[in-house]
Amino acid sequence: MTWRTANLKQLAALGPQYGANASAVPRIGTRPRYVRITDIDSSGRLIPDGAVGADLENESDFLLDDGDLLFARSGNTVGKSYRYSKSHGPCVFAGYMIRFRLRPELADPRFVFYFTRSSDYQRWVSSKKRVAGQPNINGSEYSALTLPIPVLCEQRRIIDILDQADALTQKRAEADAFAERILPALFHKLFGDPAANPNGWRRTTLGNVLADASYGTSAPSNTAGDGLPVLRMNNIDRAGRIDLASLKNVVIEQAEAHRQLLRPGDLLFNRTNTKELVGKTGLWRGQMLAVAASYLIRLRVDESNVVPDYVWAWMNTPYFKQLLFAISRRAVGMANINATELGTSEVMTSA
């Protein structure tokens, strides 16, 4: 099926219109919310917390109408988009945003908003970013943004499908957030507060309960499926779960493969990441033959002394994360923890 294309200027009943340059003030009574770039998250949703009003006399000029599309025009967030819904209450928009109001007989704003979540749109934004100075996309450039426009009934059919996918994504995010909270809570219930140690358990170093700590392979990965699957830092989520949805492979010599192959019970520690994410620790349960990448440290516990599941749960407690946060070293915005430093960190055992 061939769809016609159109640009935003052809689809717009109003726009491009630049937002209001105003000071943010406490939002009192029925004053409209002042929507700034920082009030929109990476998924294009309005952040509920931190709402402010605007010190603005002519606020009616900048009031948003249901379905209005906003685009960030400057800074590192250039290209960020938001579709206003009247369910969010009265809102005006800030000066670093550009508004387009679409003609409803031509385009459903939800369809255009979903287009801004696509890789085609992201590539377009990247092509417009300036090499030097502050990146920006002006109103004329946004007006020229071209996108495929099927007939309205087809737009709405696609919207229904994407709404369902978006709802599933939201449920997954909620489940991930719940999992991130539940493991530390269970650990606390079973073994007590790690900081207070109410059961008087012995404290030792992690190195004392390990049989081995080894860095993963530095062999280049491929997407052709050649060689062995390799686990990377994005295969471990914040709750310490292993995610095999996106795997690459590595081709390595047989001797290295013998050394690097993961065994059930191996812990995978993310040694380099942002300071908030460094230290993600997953537990390998032998789902397949696989190796770890060099940004992970493979920890093999001495099972005559402690069980892997306990050490994994310990390493995913907020208490342990705070210990890591204190010793992590920052380099060009990234935090690093090496095997030696990790081995000196604390673990609580009953023996």
Pick out its properties.
Adenine-n6-DNA-methyltransferase TaqI, Chain A, domain 2, 9 helices, 351 residues, 2 domains
List the helices and strands and how they pair.
Layout: E1 4-7, H1 8-11, E2 12-18, E3 23-25, E4 33-35, E5 53-55, E6 69-72, E7 81-83, E8 91-93, E9 97-102, H2 109-115, H3 119-128, H4 139-143, E10 146-149, H5 152-191, E11 202-205, E12 210-215, E13 221-222, E14 228-231, E15 248-250, H6 254-260, E16 267-270, E17 272-273, E18 281-283, E19 291-292, E20 296-301, H7 308-315, H8 318-327, E21 329-331, E22 334-336, H9 339-344, E23 346-349
Parallel strand pairs: 4-8, 14-19
Antiparallel strand pairs: 1-10, 2-9, 3-5, 6-7, 6-9, 11-23, 12-20, 13-15, 14-15, 16-18, 16-20, 17-22, 21-22
Q: How many beta strands in the DSSP annotation? A: 23
pLDDT below 50 for ≥5 consecutive residues: which ranges? none
- Tell me the number of helical segments per DSSP (H or I, 4 or more residues long): 9
Estimated radius of gyration? 26 Å
The residue-averaged pLDDT reads: 88
User: Can you summarize the main beta sheet?
Assistant: 4 strands, antiparallel
